[in-house]
Structure formats: C-alpha cells, structure tokens
Amino acid sequence: MTNKLPDTFLMHGSRAVLASFGSAVHIEHQVHTIERAVAENPPLAFDLAKALVETICRTILRDRGKTYDSNWELNKLFNETTQCLRLVPEAHSSDPEMRRSVQRTLAGLNGLIQGLCELRNKAGIASHGHDAFNIPMETIQALLAARAADALVHYLFSVHRGYVRDPNVGRVRYDDFGDFNDFVDEGHEPIQIFELVFQPSEVLFYVDADGYRAKLAEFQTDKKAEDDTRAIVQPSEA
C-alpha cells in the first residue's frame, strides 16, 4: 500500500529562498517538480532533492567568487560551501564553545547529506542494477529526502545572505543592498525617458556595474567608520 500525503507538500524553506532570489527559474522548476514528485513519483524526488542541494551550493560558491569542479560529489560541494560562509554572528566568532557547537552541527549536517546521497543511490530513479520488479520507495521516504533538502537549502542560503557581503567579491544583486540603493535615490533625481521613470540606483547598477560596486564599497566603508565612531562616543555620553 502506498503512503499518501494528507495535504499538498510544499517546500517552505526553498520557497523563502526563491522569494529572496528574484528570478531563479532553474531552482523554481526544481522546487515545484519535487513538490509534485513526492506524491506522484517518489523515486524521482530523491534525485531532485539531491540536485537541488547541489544547485544551491554551486550558486553560493559562484556568488562568492569561488571556483568549483563540476564533477564534485554532493559532500564535497557542501563542505566547500560551508567553508566560505560565516556560520555565526561576528560577536560569537571567538567563543570556543560556540565554535565547537557549530562544528558539531556541521558534522550532523554532513551525516544528513551522506544519508541523502545514500537514499538517492538506493531509491533514486537513476540508480543502477535494480531488478525489473523491484518495489520502489514510497512517499513517506521521499518526504525525508525532500524535507532534508528543504532544510539545508534554507539554512545555507540564509547564512549566505544573512551577513553583509563584500561587494568586491563574487556576484552582486541589486536587491542585496537596499540601504545603499536608498542612499543613491535620495541624493539624485529620478530619470525619466518618455513616460518611463527609473530610479538612479537602478540606472547605476544596470548601466555601470563596476561603478555601482565602487560606490557601494565607499558607502559601506563610510558607514562602518560612522558605526565605529558612534560605538566609541556613546559610552562616554552615557
């Protein structure tokens, strides 16, 4: 008897990532296909869950200007991705116990990734050597793979986007730097061409990407200097 879902399965974590991404057609297609496959074609869900985690790892590595080998297995991709992420807030980065806790968490995530790979190899639609009458895994097992992938995708992407990034490294997205965009727009008049109106920050970003990066770096340097000065002056005022 096949296990059936009580309700439609949704990858809430991955959908939150899509909301942050803007237009990520490939990831959107993967997410929607996994959601359908869990109930309709469980073996396919294993393959797609693994592929989704691989996609998000490659995306993060590329965003951060890191190179990767297209032949890397999932564990290798995952390890390389976590190596280039700041996994805890800066205030806790020197806390030994915090560091140990993060290492234990990463070890658990590595085990989860390995389990996902093994499930894919044994139950995925692309696995080899099965008897023609082999009974495939069911929806309840496919849910394990799909939910594991969903949690990992959301975790990795949240860490990736959760801290201020260096605009001189990797790929820069317009929506990543709302405070800088507001600063540009407040200091310059909107640009009108016929009946179309464009914000100055958008024009700068799409017309001169290098200029946008340079001014963004200046803005962040100035902002950090102001924050540092405020932190020094504020206690004496109190």
Fold-level CATH name of the largest domain: Four Helix Bundle (Hemerythrin (Met), subunit A)
Q: Which CATH-level-2 architecture of the largest domain?
A: Up-down Bundle
Percentage of residues in helical conformation: 55-70%
Strand content: under 5%
Q: In the residues, how many domains can be counted? A: 2
| Class by alpha and beta content | mainly alpha
Q: Which runs of at least 5 residues are low in confidence (pLDDT < 50)?
A: 1-6, 124-128, 130-135
Describe this structure in words.
The chain has 238 residues and is mainly α. It folds into two domains: 12-162, Four Helix Bundle (Hemerythrin (Met), subunit A); 174-237. 66% of the residues lie in helices and 3% in strands. The chain has nine helices and two strands; from the N terminus they run H-H-H-H-H-H-H-E-E-H-H. The protein has helices at 12-21, 25-40, 42-63, 74-83, 96-123, 139-162, 178-187, 200-207, 209-237, and strands spanning 191-193, 196-198. A two-stranded antiparallel ribbon has the order 1-2. Strand 1 (191-193) and strand 2 form a beta hairpin. Mean pLDDT is 78; it is low at 1-6, 124-128 and 130-135.
